[in-house]
Amino acid sequence: MNQSMKEDSRVELLARVHESLAADPAADLRHLLEGVHPGEIAFVLESLPPGERDAVWPAIDPQIYAEVFAELQDVVRASRLADLPPDRVAWIARHIDPDDAADLLQDLPEDFTDEVLAALPGRERRHLEAVLHYGENTAGGLMNLDTLVTRPDRRLDEVLHRLRARGNIPEKTNRLFVIDGQGLYLGSLRLADLLINDPECMVEDLMLSDLPVLPASMEDSEVARLFEQRNLFTAPVIDAKGTLIGRITVDDIIDVIREEGEHSLMSMAGLNEEEELFSPVLDAARARMLWLATNLATAFVAAWVFGLFEATIREIVALAVLVPVVASMGGIAGIQTLTLVIRAQSLDQVGRANFGALMLHELRVGLINSALWSVVVGVVAWLWFDRPILGAVAAAALAINFMSGVMSGAIIPVLLKRMGIDAALAGGVILTTVTDVVGIFALLGMGSYFLLG
């Protein structure tokens, strides 16, 4: 099934759920959701207002209830968990992976989390506490504890015998991890090598050391980069002593990449990444106020600069008409460079060693585009207002603002990173202010000098 077909089926399911809710929820919803994947049900819940979600929950098959929770966005999941007793949350935590359960509990108040942990059986509680010990955005908080291990001095037939005795293999397992008597990580054994080689072979003869070893404290974004760069399917996680404590698989990394993408997208609009489609109105309005206030302040700065040339604008109204053209072209040019640099920063591709080369590259690109579009704007302004000198002023102002936008787009994210500020959040506001102010100064300043001087 291709991507468009999948999206169509999800949209169709959502539409049918809406129809069922409008008719007889209890009778139709259970049948409608029967056999639907937990991820699709989570999509439906996230797409519904809170009141309609409450009507859908009772219709979900109890057998997949926990899996649906694991697929939900944090904020939607937290709102539902707040209505459940600790023993019910403990039941959900027992039926999902420890890393998913840890994410689930990190959304809850600490005293409630303690009650949930107390309601868990000993083994599950210890596993969950091991993951909760590490930060949410670290390899330790991301890892699975269901690892298959063996020793280097065992024969392959012994390993196979132990696997058969175990009765099941954890999902997404393509390697066994090799440890010594103290649990220290030594290497890995591919399942394929285990199956196709002579049963008398020793594990140490086939053991590989090609996987990167992930410290539990490593940032999840760095883990994601390692998986991407090395095309990894799985990797071991160790503690400070080198003891194997878990593994990370590619499906965990998909979640990290998705969350990073959502963070960047929401930050560029000044939105909290935890805000969901149907967040409470007052909470959503409050969360957006700071960003709107910041933008209002920068808009007043641009308006103040504009007001400095009030006399010029009264004399030559055409200049006021051209201000949005000059300002927006500089802003767009800057945003293009800003986005490129922010993406490169997220991939650790920008540093002191290559920043000069990057700046030179962007200046060259900017010079070509500014030359082209300055001529276009100059000719249009000349023909529009029948004043050649006005066309020349517009062309020069656009070229200046275009290049200031390009330079600012490259410099701003680097400066913000050094200051510990998220460039995806603040970069756009600063850049827009720069290009608005420079554009207005350039156009109206040169207009005053050449047209009124």
Question: Which SSEs are present, and which pair or pack?
Answer:
Elements: H1 3-22, H2 25-33, H3 38-46, H4 50-56, H5 65-71, H6 74-81, H7 86-94, H8 98-106, H9 110-118, H10 122-132, H11 139-142, E1 149-150, H12 156-166, E2 175-179, E3 185-190, H13 191-196, H14 203-206, E4 214-215, H15 220-230, E5 234-238, E6 244-249, H16 250-268, H17 281-307, H18 310-315, H19 317-346, H20 352-385, H21 388-418, H22 423-451
Parallel strand pairs: 1-2, 4-5
Antiparallel strand pairs: 2-3, 5-6
What is the CATH superfamily classification of the largest domain?
SLC41 divalent cation transporters, integral membrane domain
Count of DSSP H/I helices: 22
Structural class assignment: mainly alpha
CATH class of the largest domain: Mainly Alpha
Measured distance between first and last alpha carbons = 69 Å
**Helix proportion of residues, in percent?**
55-70%
Coarse morphology:
elongated
Q: Going across the biggest sheet, name each strand in turn.
A: 1-2-3
The biggest beta sheet reads: 3 strands, mixed
How many strand elements? 6
List unreliable stretches of 5+ residues.
1-6
Please, what is the average pLDDT? Answer: 87
CATH architecture of the largest domain: Orthogonal Bundle
Q: Write the H/E string, N to C.
A: HHHHHHHHHHHEHEEHHEHEEHHHHHHH
How much strand content do the residues show?
Answer: 5-15%
Q: Please state the CA-atom Rg, rounded to the nearest Å.
A: 29 Å
Number of domains: 3
CATH topology of the largest domain: Tetracycline Repressor, domain 2
